[in-house]
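Side project, low priority. Logging it here so it doesn't get lost.
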Amino acid sequence: MIMLLSLALIPLDVEIIQAVVSLRTPLVNWFMIYYTTYGNYIFALIEGLILIFSRKRNYRDILYLVLNSYAGWFIADRIVESLKNIVRRPRPYVLFNSIEPLVKSDGFSFPSGHSSAAWALALPFMMVINSHKVKFTLVLFATLISFSRVYCGVHFLSDVIFGGCIGYVISKSIFENVVAKQLEARDRLQQY
């Protein structure tokens, strides 16, 4: 459903990105450039550090979640790259001289790999963490990565929504079909 919505937004993409780009300020530019460039890598590193320094009894659970995140990121990236080469949609700044990119991005625009990665990395933790504050932070992280791509002028809104959906669906599928079953099997073994 959300993927269909992103496709329905295509006629509005130009107006949306022009409106977002018109809101740029030097301070926000600095933040968005930094966040769009390093956000996914920093989050992946934080996940790895949580795994390394975890001293809780649920070390194996954290391992499953981190591996789910990384596997979702990898698989979603392969799908995104394939779709980019099939669709071959030019980036906004290539189509419109009025849109100045804040970061360098080569290749095609649709769908967004950064958005796909952000949602693939965040989703497994959203599935198991009970804290509403942590879930909100994870959603905020993924949403900011996605929005930063539009703000920086390298993606249309439909690109980031579709890319985010790919990361979300792939990571959720891995979680439900692999990780959740591993956690259930472990819980059954602990009952005996």
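Brief comment: The chain has one domain: 2-14+26-191.
Revisit when time allows.
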